[in-house]
Amino acid sequence: MNTALSKESVLGALSAIRDPDLGKDIVTLGFVKDVKVADGTVAVTIELTTPACPVKDSMRADARKALLALPGVRDAQVTMTAQVRPSRLENKARLAPGVRNIVPIASGKGGVGKSTVSANIALALAKLGARVGLMDADVYGPSLPTILGATTAPGQDGDRFVPVVRYGVKLLSMGFFIPPGEAVVWRGPMLHKTMEQFLGQTDWGELDYLLVDLPPGTGDVQLSLCQMMPLTGAAVVSTPQDVALTVAEKAVIMFGKLRTPVLGIIENMSGFACGKCGNHEDVFGVGGAERYAKAKGLPFLGAIPLATAIRETSDAGTPIVEAAPDSPGGRAFTAVAKALAAQVSIAALAGPRDGKPEPAEVSRPAPGSLAIKWSDGHASQYTARELRLACRCALCVEEMSGRALLRAESVPALLDVRGVQPTGRYALHIAFSDGHQTGIYTFDRLRELCPCPECRKKAPAR
Ligand code: ADP
Question: What structural domains does the chain harbor?
Answer without folding.
Answer: 2-82 (3.30.300.130), 102-350 (3.40.50.300), 359-458 (3.30.2020.30)
